[in-house]
Amino acid sequence: MSSPAEIVGGDAARSAPSSVRAPHRSAARLRLRRLARKLAFAFAVAVIVSPAILVFLWMLSLSLKNELSNMTYPPVFVPDPPTLANYVQVFSENSMGLYFRNSLVVSGFATLIALVVGVPAGYGIARLRASRTLVLILIARMTPALSFLIPLFTVFQFLGLNNTLTALVITHLVITVPIVVYLMAGYFETLPRELEEAALIDGGSIFSTLRYVALPLARPGIVVATILSFIFSWNNFVFGAVLAGRATRTLPAAVYNVLTFEQLAWGPLAAAAIVVTLPVLLLTIFIQKEIVAGLTHGGVKGA
Amino acid sequence: MSRSVATITAAAPRAGFILRRRRGYRLLTIPAMLVVAAVIVFPWLFTVYMSAFDWKIGQAAHFVGLGNYAGLVTNQRFLESIVHTFYFTLLAVIFPLVLGTAAALIFHRRFRGRGVLRAIFTMPMMATPVAIALVWTMMFHPQQGVLNYLLTSIGLPPSLWVYSPKFVIPSLVIVEVWHWTPLVMLIVLGGLASLPTEPYESARLDGATEWQLFRHVTLPLIMPFVVVAAVIRTIDAVKAFDTIYVISQGGPGTASETINLYLYLQAFAFYNIGNASAVVVVFFAIIVALALLLLHVRERARWAA
């Protein structure tokens, strides 16, 4: 921390000449410098944002072109004419509707169960100030997903649950419960305690205080936890790839298993990729600000 | 004597009240604890247990004690997978840290369209990794891929990308950097938002240049956040799976086979559960060691600052 002090108390000799020299600079040169600086900044913004835009645009372009223009070299960038044939083909030749429904069921139930057990737990942890409990959550985050999968796979095998959506929902709790507990504990800690104290002193039970006082205040936090938990569950690939059967595949597992092996055409593959990731991107845009806040504090990511 | 009895009787109901309250809060955490016990703690213990057996699914299990671990020490393929993992992790931590910090400095400024551009910048992090990996697979294609077109159009020689044993890991790192630089940006941006303004004002009054401001004021202040980002990035990079599995399957040959991919093959291609469990235990030890190492660095950095 000595460095700021150096500058603060630093040599007045160096700062003096610059203030003397300033009036001598012509106004035009100053404006030119400011313009150059602005352009450089705009250039930096463009450089840093363009990879994100370009990959998504290329994905869209691939999905809207026919196979002929996808295979020509040099590549065709703008689809001419754009066609929805790839999307039609993906939906007609595969049970995309079924996979979509599987993903919705698995991520939906995994998120719902996580909220039911995770929101009260987050509240309890916040009010007990039991931040040490969160270490367990951190350890869960550090553990590779595959290491949960081996024992659970063996147990599901034993119970005859492999290839069922139930097994997938249970496994996805590995992702959703830590996210919800972690985010909700953090959120409840930021809520003022006075109202709760008043309710408790008036003879309210802890449960009713949570239900009628804390929960309504925590709604924004619950929304963020729900959406992030849903997204990371939706994005999960390996659980579905290992545990699901033909009829119970989630979208990411289906896109990899069904499409890459059975059809190597780029157009339908890109179209399927967009179908998988579009719901998530729409959710992201929808609650952009809250997601930024939630992720900044938690550094949360699925298992 | 009588006075102490009075204090005890007065304090007792209050202590009971607080105790009852704590019990109530603890009760709320029980359902979640049960779930965590079932899907996180139980698999953990089961893994450690299974690592002591020579067991393939469908066959009888034999107790081998530390035999699986002893086998790993001399397993060339496993040892190479550790090297690949460290190489991949090193690159996939350094580049997102540098680029993410730069991006955070940019998005910390106010400019027109900042909200929209920041939203676009963070999109890769939320996109489904498998879907994105498929698109990158097409972009890496040596003949028809758009990346080689871009390289040759600026006069560079085309690359084999993920089809070359030499370039496969750096190529996979490109995808990883694309994916996770936004997470670093968000963490560092959170740090920048919490900075005090006074040191800047006084430093500016003293005529410090932009670079001096960054080097001697901003960087030391955001360092704790950069280290947190480094810890998170390291954990995630070591565990990277989807991208590698979809794009290269660990190939060509075993050139990009990381610990996680080796683990997957052992468990779900060969159903070699005992051996895979031992790999998991070693893998987890490596992750914990790396995280602790980085946190140690963080502590030292704090003392130095």
Annotation keywords:
heterodimer; A: 303 residues; mainly alpha; MetI-like fold; 2 domains; 16 helices; 0% strand; disordered N terminus; B: 305 residues; two-stranded antiparallel sheet; 2 strands
Using the alpha-carbon principal axes, give the shape of chain B. Answer: globular
Order of helices and strands of chain A: HHHHHHHHHHHHHHHH
Portion of residues in beta strands of chain A equals under 5%
Discrete helix count of chain A: 16
Give a structural overview.
The complex is a heterodimer of chains A (303) and B (305). By secondary structure, chain A is mainly alpha-helical. Chain A has 2 domains: 2-83, no CATH class; 89-298, MetI-like (MetI-like fold, Orthogonal Bundle). Chain A has 16 helices and no strands. The longest helix of chain A is centred in the first third of the chain and has 38 residues, at 27-64. Chain A starts with a helix and ends in a 5-residue tail after the last helix. The radius of gyration of chain B is 26 Å and the shape is globular. Chain B has 2 domains: 2-50; 71-304, MetI-like fold (Orthogonal Bundle), CATH 1.10.3720.10. Mean pLDDT of chain B is 86; it is low at 1-10. Chain B has a two-stranded antiparallel ribbon. Chain B has 12 helices and 2 strands; from the N terminus they run H-E-E-H-H-H-H-H-H-H-H-H-H-H. Chain B has 305 residues and is mainly alpha-helical. Chain B has helices at residues 2-50, 67-73, 76-108, 114-126, 129-140, 146-153, 168-193, 198-205, 210-239, 242-247, 259-268, 273-304; strands spanning 53-54, 62-63. In chain B, helix 3 (76-108) runs antiparallel to helix 9.
